[in-house]
Specification:
By secondary structure, the chain is an alpha/beta fold. The chain contains ten helices and 14 strands.
């Protein structure tokens, strides 16, 4: 049975939620905001998800692309102290003029947690219930806030934005099993819309806790989600059920370096991304956004994965650039350092410029 978003809590609480979302909408329509003019996604179960694509962009309207970049040393730990001259960023194989914000952990975080409730996911509720105390790792800045979504065959907002990890912890401890669906595509799309209502200076993060394959999305096609992620400034962190150590080790080595796009290869590359989404949507979307994908088995493994994800979110270099090639459509990004530090570099693998094919 689906959890109602504000079930039986009274009309007053429902009204407060609507007022809160109205404030977010007004904030999102301030000139210059990424989500200007965009409507908030419907979040009450009886209402269908929007079928149109979000108008939010990765500040491409001002020709500035944002690329949060993690540089992790062998054996763990972030490589600090790198300067602008230490990075090279290539857009479709062409080096770009970049700007690097050297200070880390200086901006608040807007986090949406999306937890699967459908199918066999109920077996993982005990682990997910322990997520509450880990939220403080994301909420270190007093302005940071987190919202909670659950999903089965459709997404539901279980708790609107708050800075209180205690409130979210209570919601996580009372998750209820849903139907047999796992509408991951619809849920990511809805979560991105919700994150895009936040101020542009926030680090927007989606923590997706789910299985690997989509089951039951009705409103979001793979190519639509590829475009939306490519236009957004949302970092996706995926923690999946049904772990496979071999697949995880392969993913660590796969940074998207072989995904260059050269003109006529655009549609072939989009086709490859769509194929990957169908195989493992949680992994592919994380990689496209510049986030991370991992799996877990026991409680300790889950807690460690989330703690690592939180640490990595706040310890990324912020690289920005204005594309030298204004061709609309999907562009592939590669970030590297001028010296070989033997480090693992994690950055978004592509972005979508303009409307494009």
């Amino acid at each position: 049975m689906t959890i109602p978003i504000l079930a039986e809590r009274g009309r007053a609480q429902l009204a407060c939620g609507r007022i809160f979302r109205s404030v977010l909408f007004l904030f999102a329509t301030v000139p210059g905001h990424i989500g200007a003019g965009q409507e908030l996604p419907p979040i009450e179960p009886p209402k269908p998800l929007p079928t149109q694509e979000s108008s939010a962009t990765l500040r491409v309207t001002t020709n500035e692309v944002i690329v949060p970049t993690l540089v992790e040393k062998k054996g763990g730990g972030v490589l600090y102290g790198l300067k602008q001259a230490d990075f090279v960023l290539e857009d479709n194989g062409v080096p770009q003029k970049i700007h690097v914000q050297e200070e880390m952990d200086v901006t608040p975080v807007a986090l949406v947690i999306a937890v699967e409730q459908g199918g066999v996911s109920a077996l993982e509720f005990g682990k997910v219930a322990k997520l509450g105390p880990l939220l403080d790792l994301f909420l270190a800045d007093e302005r940071s806030q987190v919202a909670l979504m659950g999903f089965d065959s459709q997404p539901h907002l279980l708790h609107d934005y708050t800075h209180s990890s205690d409130e979210l912890n209570d919601a996580l401890e009372h998750l209820q099993p849903g139907d047999g669906g796992a509408a991951i595509l619809d849920t990511i799309s809805s979560a991105v819309d919700l994150l895009e209502t936040e101020p542009k200076e926030y680090r927007r993060v989606l923590l997706l806790i789910s299985e690997e394959r989509d089951h039951g999305s009705k409103h979001t096609k793979p190519v639509q989600l590829i475009r939306k992620i490519g236009r957004s400034n949302v970092l996706v962190l995926s923690v999946s059920f049904s772990p496979s150590r071999a697949e995880f080790l392969h993913d660590v080595k796969d940074s998207g370096d072989d995904r260059y796009i050269h003109g006529e290869n655009l549609m072939a590359t989009v086709g490859m991304l769509i194929k990957s989404l169908k195989k493992n949507v949680s992994k592919e979307i994380a990689q496209e956004s510049g986030g991370e994908y991992t799996t877990f088995t026991g409680d300790k493994g889950f807690e460690q994965r989330v703690a690592d994800a939180a640490r990595h979110v706040r310890n990324r270099y912020l690289i920005t650039f204005s594309p030298s090639d204004p061709t609309p459509g999907l562009h592939t990004i590669r970030v590297r350092t001028t010296q070989d530090y033997g480090a693992r570099i994690v950055a978004r693998s592509n972005y979508w410029l303009g409307d494009g094919p």
